[in-house]
Amino acid sequence: MRVSVLPRALALAACLACSLPSQAGLFDDDEARKAILDLRTRLDETRSQNVAAQRQLTEQIQTLQRSLLDLNNQNEQLKAELARLRGQLETMQRDLSDVQRRQKDMTQVVDERMKRLEPQQVTVDGKDITVEPDEKRAYEEAIAVLRSGDFEKAAGALQTFLRRWPQSGYTDSARYWLGNAQYGLRAYKDALATFRQFLAAAPDHLRAPEALLALANCQVELKDTKGARRSLDELVKQYPKSEAAVAARERLAVLR
């Protein structure tokens, strides 16, 4: 009994010893395949993740490009708007400059008109007077006509002046020149009356000696020799140092 059992035990042990290496190799192949499958799975996942990331990156880039394009369009619009505003500003500046220039011109015109309307200080026959612009112009125009030799027109202008401005500072001088215009027209009686009126109103006037001499000349023309001598005597007496007094003395020597 013991002899038969031992051989079989030995044979079983030998079989087991021979089968152990092949079983170990089988286990190694399964693990490798499993590792490869795991690796492939991870690679596929990584690939999918990369594709998704690339797609997302592409979308972000496209979004950024659209944003940049929008910003560029907005920038161009802003440039155009800025150019338009700059043009409007330049136009407004030109308009403002034109308005300021016109306003300045209008101000000058108004000032000039106001000056023409404001009373003015003038000197006539050594006397300072204040006159209105129209008053001054009318007097100067009448004197200019007288100097041109048109005694009739000058007499009319001076008479009109005296009626319009009876209290003018020009009145005495206007009356004196009216007498001269009337004398030039040979209206000796009118001239005589005008010179007498002048002397009665302004005996201290600068032209009083000349007026008295002219009055005596009117009397001579009217054949009033006696009256002429009285006027000349009065001239020499009242204004002895005047040039008219020199002429009066000469005239008296002739009349006597």
How does this model look, in words?
The chain folds into 2 domains: about 30-120; about 120-255, Tetratricopeptide repeat domain (Serine Threonine Protein Phosphatase 5, Tetratricopeptide repeat), CATH 1.25.40.10. It is about 85% helix and about 5% strand. The protein contains 8 helices and 2 strands; from the N terminus they run αββααααααα. Strands 1-2 form a two-stranded antiparallel sheet. A hairpin with a 2-residue loop joins strand 1 (about 120-125) and strand 2. Helix 6 runs parallel beside helix 8 (about 245-255). The relative contact order is 0.04.
Q: What secondary-structure arrangement, pairings included, does this model have?
A:
Layout: H1 2-117, E1 120-124, E2 127-131, H2 133-148, H3 151-164, H4 171-184, H5 188-201, H6 208-221, H7 225-238, H8 243-255
Antiparallel strand pairs: 1-2
CATH topology of the largest domain: Serine Threonine Protein Phosphatase 5, Tetratricopeptide repeat
What can be said about the biggest beta sheet?
2 strands, antiparallel
Number of helices: 8
What's the number of domains? 2
* Average pLDDT level: 87
Enumerate the spans where pLDDT stays under 50 for 5 or more consecutive residues: none
For the record, what CATH class of the largest domain applies? Answer: Mainly Alpha
Strand order of the largest sheet: 1-2
Q: Name the helix and strand elements from N-terminus to C-terminus, one letter apiece.
A: HEEHHHHHHH
Signal peptide: 1-24
Family: Belongs to the CpoB family.
Coiled coil: 36-102
Domain YbgF trimerisation: 56-121
